[in-house]
Amino acid sequence: MTPENGMSRAAAPLEDDLAALADLVAAARRVVVFTGAGISTESGIPDFRSPGGLWTRQVPIDFDSFLASEANRQESWRRRFESDAIFRGARPNRGHRAVAELVRRGKAQCVITQNIDGLHQASGIGDDQVIELHGNSTYARCLDCDARYEIEALRVAFEADGRSPRCGRCGGLVKTATISFGQAMPEAAMRRAETETLAADLFVAVGSSLVVFPAAGFPALAKQNGAGLAIVNRDPTHLDAVADVVVNRSIGEALGAVVGVE
Ligand SMILES: [Zn+2]
Fold first, then answer.
1. Which residue has the higher pLDDT, 211 or 228?
2. Going along 9-158, which residue ranges are E strands?
3. How far apart are CA 258 and CA 223, in angstroms?
4. Model pLDDT for residues 46-70, shown as the tens digit of each residue
5. pLDDT band at 14 (very low <50, low <70, confident <90, very high)
6. Is residue 86 predicted with pLDDT exceeding 60?
7. Is 134 part of the annotated catalytic residue set?
8. Which chain residues have CB less than 5 Å from ligand 1, an ion?
9. CB 227 within 8 A of CB 196
10. Beta pairing partners, 231
């Protein structure tokens, strides 16, 4: 994307819902963008929680089960490596680029995301400006000493010996850096998300059905705190009634038009 493209506006006037969102963004001093699976489905990442999605067909391996047995850990890793092609092949789409442009302009200070695919970072937003509520699936960590491991190296070792990875430093269990079912929410990320939500005068919820708590409590918190609330999602959500603007469209099309990026 060239700077010229980043600044240009579509020649045609925006339709009413998009114009309303553009006005809100223009008037805001501090925007928080909150993203869910819907922004990444346009990059080919399936929504694992949707009806018919992977997680509704396979019993998820929760955190206690992962800790409990080597067989469960092997199954968990087998599934992760099976989905590797999806994660490795995914690239940021127009929606990610529009969010990155809001951060680049200083309009948004950070992105709070429920996604684990790392696509906000891949779109050029710094690690320190992405608050990941469900962790990150594109690398792994030792559960004991927090050492970082890359998925590709773990896959090669797993294919050689079939055993779940152990930490080379301390011998601890190595797990993708995601938050599993039954695993505590990441405290620092949750606190920071709350602080950023309370500091914002506009909260833009993007591609989330806003039903997975506690993460989905943030838009309601922003609204109670007096911020504007915009919801951009393909389908209606239960918070639409209290939102200032609701846009039910493709995320990339909507944010791309509002921010002026292709
Ligand atoms: Zn370790």
1. 228
2. 31-35, 108-113, 130-132, 135-142, 148-150
3. 21
4. 876 655 555 556 778 999 999 999 9
5. confident
6. yes
7. yes
8. 142, 144-145, 147, 167, 169-170, 172
9. no
10. 205, 246
